[in-house]
Amino acid sequence: MANPTIVASRLTKKYGEVTVVNALDLRLQAGEVFGLLGPNGAGKTTTILMLLGLIEPTSGSIEVLGLDPARNPLEVKSRVGYLPDAVGFYDSMTGRENLKFTARLNQLPKTEGDQRIVELLEEVGLTEAADRPTGTYSRGMLQRLGIADALIKRPAILILDEPTTSIDPEGVAEMLALIRNLAEDRQVTVLLSSHLLHQVQAVCDRVAIFVKGTVVAQGAPHELAAKNKGPEHVEVHTTADQAKVRAALTGKSFVQSVQPARVPNVYMIQVNRGSTNQLIASLVQAGLELSGVRRASDDLDEVYRGYFHREEAPVG
Amino acid sequence: MADSAVIAPPGDRYRLGHGWKVVARKEFADHLLSARFYVLILILGVAAAGAVFAASGGIRSVAPSAVGVPALFLKLFTVTAEPVPFPLVVFIGFLAPLLGIMFGFDAISGERSQGTLPRLLAQPIHRDEVILGKFVAGLAVVGLMLLALVIFVSGIGIFRLGLIPTPTEIGRLAVWLVVAVIYVGFWQALATLASVSVPRAATSALIAIGIWLVLSLFGGFIFRAAANLVAPADDQGALLQAEVTLSRISPLTLFSESSTLLLDPTERTVDLVTFDQINRAIVSDLTLTQSLLVVWPQIVGMIALTAALFAIAYVLFMRQEVRA
User: Fold this and answer.
1) Which domains does chain A have, with CATH numbers?
2) Most B-contacting residue of A48, A52, A54 (CB-CB within 10 A), to test interface
3) pLDDT for B217-249, tens place per residue?
């Protein structure tokens, strides 16, 4: 990759004996949307704070726009927009005043800053609420104001920590569209972290799945899904009772497990990868009335879950 | 974002030493609009009005014999009469810690609890500028309040007594005002340190107020007990001297000694004097420079204490995690 904007190599952070981030390698380039995916406590926020120079790494190196954030914090922070997890604003100030404060901290000339704030408020849909104290904002509005706040400085890199939590589904779609737009049209590098895979996988060019400080998989979402060798989860809707379903599948080696779902008349069946057709054939041959068959998940969710199971029960 | 230049060009448009002014400006505006500002103004105003009416009443009643009393105008600040128990200077010495604590206790813990700290520190600004800007803003507000108070009291004095302050008296008041702001700075630095050390603003306020109460209520006992440990018990003079010396660790003592000297030209020393020394002294008033010279160690002591606390707060904050 030519011209990387963020390079981290063997990045490690330890607190005493606990390793929070373990030998992380990242390489991002301009115009790319990169997702750092993993459960809470995986070390995503720690990684982000190290990239911003707000936490010093225990070992390893970071280059952001060719600079070491620990050595040149101001240059890095002046060109990296950051939306923290659960972003907060000064309650008694209005949304516009909060953004003005950020603009001043970034030393934007007053007229340019004010103009930019008007545009950004429009873009995130807060023009109406701009002159209300942020204490009256909903969580989703604060999140959108946070995006505007991160964009004031015209960042070359945008780092978003859990940007979609606590926004309604429509807001999430808008947020993701905005992110895509920034990356494609403006060549902004976007690094976002999330524990909600299905929300962000559509928007990411590449993802890294991050469990307990270690990256367990990295690549484009469809590549990762293709690499998955784990079982397929099939959701079968049938009026037949559990005994009949089990009877129909006894002795079939490709079936791994049969579980009734929480909803009546629905069963979750795990089969070997690529055996969904055989499963359906077996059920039909046994004379079961099928009202629906659906692959429960055929995306990153499954990859993710696969790694989790391995983490929880290290069988292989 | 209709404009085309979406990504800012790299370059050093970042002037150093600018961030703390932005922080200070915001904090200053916040303080002036805050409820605590109005509460403090009210408390100070009532205290000042009470004290100055008592003082001016007292001065009036002795007016015939007051001819030739040096720096009569300053007596407005240093004498009292029934039913007000303290002169104004003592009132301010008592309330100043409250001023400092009120404008410092949530400096950092407030940012933490509002969730604004990570966002603030992700801006192109050094961490020390955050804490410095807040400190300066607090002191500026306090300075403004005390200045208003002094002008208010002087106004009442001029109106009720017809006393016009001489240039020297104005000079003494101005120097005293600066010393009072330094004294408040000590308490503000203490409160800032508390706000860095504990995550909750309420805890930090309690710690700072606790230290203030212990020093002002029990300071006397503590220093007497300590003097008993270091001085020979059969020598009263040495014991007293030890107590006075030890009590100068406390900024309360330093401020009250400075106030006494600065506002009363007839006061010659802050140390213990024997009758012999008084009897043989030639009676004359000190000039402002001489008074200042006497309490210079006290003033430097207060600055040093303030600087030490601020430095500890600063170092702790620099090493702290951004996340709570």
Assistant:
1) 4-225 (3.40.50.300), 228-312 (3.30.70.100)
2) A54
3) 888 888 888 888 887 778 778 888 888 888 888
Query: Would you state the pLDDT for residue A268?
Result: 84
Which residue do the tokens 């240039």 mark? B167
pTM over 0.90: no
Q: What is the pLDDT of residues B50-63, one digit of tens each?
A: 888 888 777 777 66
Angstrom distance (rounded) from CA B190 to CA B312: 10
Residue A235, pLDDT above cutoff 50? yes
Q: Tell me the CA distances in angstroms from B38 to A94, A136, B111, B130, B290, one per residue in order.
A: 21, 23, 22, 25, 38
Instruction: Report the C-alpha gap between A105 and A78 in whole angstroms.
Output: 9
Structure tokens at A53: 């120079």
Residues 6+ apart with CB under 8 A from A262: none
**What distance in Å separates residue B11's CA from the closest CA in chain A?**
8
* Amino acid of residue B89: V
Provide the ipTM: 0.83
Structure tokens at B18: 């600018």
Q: Are residues B322 and A75, on separate chains, in Cβ contact within 8 Å?
A: no
* Dihedral sign from CA coordinates of A185, A45, A147, A301: positive
Name the minimum distance, in Å, from the CA of B119 to any CA of chain A.
6
